[in-house]
Structure formats: C-alpha cells, structure tokens
C-alpha cells in the first residue's frame, strides 16, 4: 500500500512512517546538492539566515537535466546523499523534517534523524525521467551561479519514494 503524504510533512505523519514504506509526496520541496550545502554552512557560520525557512521543509538531493518542452524539469534522479552528511545534522537541528536522495547515511545523520523526529526517503536511482513527471512546477530560489546545483523549489504531485530511515532510526540499508 502506498501512503500519500502532503508536504510540508507534519510531525505526526512522520511518526507513522516505517522504514520500507512506499510513499507518494505532493506539495512543495526544495532542492540542494553538495555546493548549496557548503554555501548554507558558510552562511550559518557567518551568522546569516538561509535563503528560505528550512523549518518543516524537505530537501531533495538532485541536479536535474535541462527541461524538455512541456516539463518543469528534465530528468531529475536522486544524488548520493552521503555527500551532504557533514551538513545534515545542523540542518535537522534547525527544523529540516525530510530529505530525499539515494544511498546510505552516516551514523551521525541517523542519530540526528532520530533526535529530531525527521525522515529520510530514498528516490529510485535510474528513474530520473519517471521522477521528472512528478515535478509540476520549478522556481529558482538562490545560487543560480551553481547551475544544476542551484537551489529550486519544486511543486510535486505523487512523487514516488521509499522511507529509507524512519524517525526511530530504522534504516533499510542496515536491515
């Protein structure tokens, strides 16, 4: 059974999710990859605010290909999440509620997910063209100079993913 959830996620929704659950997300989420996470970290180290309010938001680790006519984005498959692990606990402590990517996360990130009642979703690698059909709107947010690693706000409908690490710290990669 596929669970249908609305973004931004509510804490009570996150608590119902179990590692291995199939979900479809609808609503708004942000994109950010390696270079954007480095900029977030630098901004926060200088006492600056992030370009958007991260509280209760979801970040999708993606660097999409250019959009074809009629699509909001081109193929938009997930990026390997471990590359953001250094910065993730800080963002979770600030209220980030969900991340979407692919692959395993560090023990530090898993502990922070558990501490903050967050969730990590795995999007299906190799399904970039399919995923892009779930992205119905794309707005640029910041760091346009980073090209495909710029931060965007996507509006998604029935975005398919799997709960990879639930709010209890149960990890499908370690079962």
What attributes characterize this protein structure?
alpha/beta; globular; 5-stranded mixed β-barrel; 175 residues
Task: Summarize, please.
With 175 residues, the protein is of the alpha/beta class. It has helices at residues 11-16, 34-45, 88-93, 107-116, 128-132; strands at residues 2-6, 22-31, 58-60, 98-101, 119-122, 135-142, 151-165.
Give structural notes.
- This protein has five helices and seven strands.
- It has helices spanning 11-16, 34-45, 88-93, 107-116, 128-132; strands spanning 2-6, 22-31, 58-60, 98-101, 119-122, 135-142, 151-165.
- The protein has a five-stranded mixed beta barrel.
- The longest helix has 12 residues, at 34-45.
- It starts with a strand and ends in a 10-residue tail after the last strand.
Structural class category: alpha/beta
Task: Return the string of H and E elements.
Answer: EHEHEHEHEHEE
Strand content bin? 25-35%
Identify low-pLDDT runs.
none
The biggest beta sheet reads: 5 strands, mixed, barrel
Continuous helix count: 5
Main sheet: strand order: 2-3-4-5-7
- Strand count: 7
Q: Between the first and last Cα atoms, what is the distance in angstroms?
A: 21 Å
